[in-house]
Amino acid sequence: MLDDRKKKVLQAIVEEYINTAEPVSSNALTSNHGLQCSSATIRNEMADLEKSGYLDKTHTSSGRIPSEKGYRYYVDELLKDDDISLEEIKYISSKLETKVNEIEDLTKIAANTISEVTHYTTVSIGPKANEQIIKDIKFILLGSRMMMAVILTDTGLVKETIIKFDEDVTEKQIETINYMFNKKLKGQPIEKIDRPLEEYLYDEMTYSVNVIKPIIEQIKKVLEDEQIYLEGANKSFDLPEFNSLEVAKNFVNVLDTKELMADMLNSGFADDIQVYIGDENPKEELKDFSVVTFKHKVNGKDLGTIGIIGPKRMDYSKVISVMKYINKKLKEIE
Amino acid sequence: MLDDRKKKVLQAIVEEYINTAEPVSSNALTSNHGLQCSSATIRNEMADLEKSGYLDKTHTSSGRIPSEKGYRYYVDELLKDDDISLEEIKYISSKLETKVNEIEDLTKIAANTISEVTHYTTVSIGPKANEQIIKDIKFILLGSRMMMAVILTDTGLVKETIIKFDEDVTEKQIETINYMFNKKLKGQPIEKIDRPLEEYLYDEMTYSVNVIKPIIEQIKKVLEDEQIYLEGANKSFDLPEFNSLEVAKNFVNVLDTKELMADMLNSGFADDIQVYIGDENPKEELKDFSVVTFKHKVNGKDLGTIGIIGPKRMDYSKVISVMKYINKKLKEIE
DNA sequence: GATTAGCAATCAAAACAAAAGAGTGCTAAA
DNA sequence: TTTAGCACTCTTTTGTTTTGATTGCTAATC
Predict the structure, then answer these.
(1) Angle between helices B316-333 and B86-96 (to 10 degrees)
(2) pLDDT given at position A199
(3) CB A260 within 8 A of CB A282
(4) Is B213 a residue whose pLDDT tops 90?
(5) Which residues contact B254 (CB under 8 A, 6 or more apart)?
(6) Spatial distance from the CA of A258 to the C1' of C10 (Å)
(7) A45 touches strand D (CB under 7 A)
(8) Do residue B140 and residue A140 have CB atoms under 8 angstroms apart?
(9) Cβ contacts of residue B289 below 8 Å, gap of 6+?
């Protein structure tokens, strides 16, 4: 579709613009981008690329900037996905070697590392519990009217929650409840904690609803809990596009809306790295930004999702290279 | 020190400036602030107040803005601390009635409520565990090399953590460890988890250091953990002072620095509400902002600290009134 | 036929200038 | 002691000009 020189010109413009944040002139490309032709020739190529929608102008006599179609072509066809230095590899490896006690922390550490290496803002969310299989449930009495439930899943996820009762509960009762819950749920996917289970337990047990109900409700609640973590929110403010108050304000608003962030991270279906450029974002509010996400999966089970959010003029090469490397490393860990 | 009319003029200027964010002119005060004199008289008073350091000018022919000394005088002597409407009282009460399973959540809810009512950004931090008395410790085996420790304190605080081992641990071992830890620590302040305890346990128990050491380390770690919560970061961006990129950037940077936020919240000693205006802040980075903090305490035990961070032109009356009311309500809860 | 030098045309950004307006400080009168 | 009056100061706004970067087109060149 695009001939060789046009590809080179487009790539040069995208990369130059990613570096400088200034519209790229025909002259700027003659010097150092390995294009063996004059600025006039490049101007002709640029005019063609603009006609086909890969480039935009900010005004009649300005240099060119990539359009979203241009970025998309760059991401699909032109970028290098090994744009990562030895130092970066070493740094990432050492960060991921941190011993974690809870599997959720791994995603957090990865998100933090990505933010540090790429200098972009990252957002992360923990594992989706409801895709997982219950390995064990433990109930521990913490007082006459308070207990803790601990749920272990096949992927090593541990979720715990405190449950309070309106009446006294005995150690004996907890034991029975423990037995019944495990009998019914061990080896089952988490979705099984639902209405039929509730009814079954009411039937099987002599205890009042006052005990069973809060347990089920609270367990459901904690399993649905989605904690969002933000890393390097301030980093974005050093980018020139954030000199526009409009953009900066919008950005803070977006980051502050937890539901939006959760939707953003949950919207990617695939196992692989997803790139959303501007309007490609499912969410209207993100249309001025680019988002790159990837899911950390083990045996098809979601162990958390990380998203990078930055300007459309994002360093896709670096971002994707780093994500690929982190993804590989995470897979190695378990 | 200040005569009556000067107080009135200062108060009017502070309140006017808090409302409008514009330098206040002598004319603006003649109309609606109950001052029975001409603008010329007010000009004279303003010149005096400026000479004594309560007011500043942005340039020779501009209106006046309060200096930090002016704000301080206002906060100490002039503000109303019952600046809270019936609707606000109702809203706060209803929010604080939310049933919480963990005592930490109460601080979070309070911080969220304050942010919603005042429209400022709030920061909160959970209870300081190390001031508390250990009521009970429970250890639960979650696998052959993994267990959970749950620590209960006298104030109702529950802290739990997962501990992983490099060797297999039996149910029997855990029982003994459970017994020993409780024997040694029940009724003791949390600081007792220290070197002497470690040595005692090594002596008393036949288990390898590989088991005792990770337990003590991990427990210490989780008790020191300070999670910072942010509410309404975006709200500040609607204020006119945040139209300056300099200020906005600074603000995001400050909020993003967790250690700074923790220091800020931990620096207040007193039980009561603390107001730091601009340079009064212990931290250099906060010198362009005002911070109002208060500790939620029960029986002298810290149950969390909340801070409001906003422009020096903060609505101190509203903020302090709301905080006082919330403080009272929290005390009622337990 | 593709490439390039040359140049007028375009437009943003910077620099400059002028006018308007808000507010003060001071003086002198009430 | 208070206030009316007014010159003076300084910011803000608005308009104009200049500068400079960059393009698109044309005609010459390879």
Answers:
(1) 40
(2) 78
(3) no
(4) no
(5) B260, B261, B285, B286, B289, B309
(6) 46
(7) no
(8) yes
(9) B251, B254, B278, B281, B309, B310, B311, B312
Contacts of A206 (CB under 8 A, 6+ apart): none
A154: contact with B, CB 8 A cutoff: no
State, as a whole number of angstroms, the distance between the CA of A24 and the C1' of D29: 28
Residue of B nearest to A164 (CA): B101
Q: For B265-289, write each residue's pLDDT tens digit.
A: 988 666 689 999 999 999 999 999 9
pLDDT at position A146 is: 93
Rounded average pLDDT over A248-273: 88
B157 touches strand C (CB under 7 A): no
Check the CA dihedral A263-A266-A267-A272 and report its sign.
positive
The verdict on A249 touching B (C-beta cutoff 8 Å) is: yes
Chain A residues with CB-CB distance to B150 below 8 A: 140, 142, 148
Res B334 pLDDT > 70: no
Q: What is the pLDDT of residues A291-302, one digit of tens each?
A: 999 998 877 788
Chain C bases near protein Cβ (<7 Å): 3-6, 9-12, 21-27
Q: Is the dihedral of CA B177, B182, B183, B188 positive or negative?
A: positive
B236 to chain A, closest Cα gap in Å: 10
pLDDT confidence bin for A225, thresholds 50/70/90: confident
